[in-house]
Design brief:
This protein has 5 helices and 9 strands. By secondary structure, the chain is of the alpha+beta class.
């Protein structure tokens, strides 16, 4: 992988802006069309996971990342849905490609785990603040980094139209004890 400082700066800036926006909105009273919830919320509508206080699709998304079935992640998307990993700079289209990305992640990272901290819903978009963790195979140490994910949902809020993951690849590599120019082995 080629290290691109300008792209990294843009990704980190975008993630910081998303974090700042979410913190600002969480601190203020939400607008009538906005719901700000934490993982311990209650009294939620039917499309929400009442036990976690987040939309059901967010809970299912985290379970799919934490599970071992790549098809479970792909199945959460619309047929033409997209998944973008902004840190790595890749986009996948359709359920098959998205499931393939999850399968690739599982071959490179032991114990991939996403822990949802908060979810902010506005219309058909959900901004998820989470911790992304795991252990890159061959790395001396595991990693656990902040991640902001923006999910675009279909009208029924049952399927994901797009997923944009924002986290610091530099931080993942640093915590893992790997050099900044490390690239994964070829598939």
């Amino acid at each position: 992988m080629v290290f691109r400082p300008i792209r990294l700066l843009m990704v980190v800036s975008a993630a910081a802006a998303l974090c700042a926006a979410a913190a600002t909105v969480s601190a203020a009273a939400p607008a009538p069309t906005t719901a700000t919830v934490s993982a311990s919320g209650s009294g939620v509508p039917a499309v929400w996971d009442a036990g976690r206080g987040v939309p059901r699709v967010v809970s299912a998304w985290a379970r799919a990342w934490n599970g071992g079935d790549p098809q479970a992640l792909g199945a959460l998307f619309t047929a033409d849905g997209t998944y973008t990993d902004e840190a790595v700079g890749v986009t996948f289209r359709g359920r098959g490609e998205i499931a393939g990305w999850k399968a690739r992640a599982d071959t490179l990272i032991d114990h991939v785990h996403v822990t949802v901290r908060t979810a902010r819903v506005q219309g058909d978009r959900v901004t998820v603040q989470a911790v992304y963790s795991g252990h890159l195979k061959g790395a001396p140490r595991p990693f656990a980094v902040a991640m902001t994910t923006v999910l675009g949902l279909d009208r029924g809020h049952c399927r994901i139209v797009f997923d944009q993951d924002h986290y610091s690849l530099a931080e993942v590599l640093s915590q893992s004890g790997l050099p900044a120019d490390w690239t994964p082995p070829a598939a």
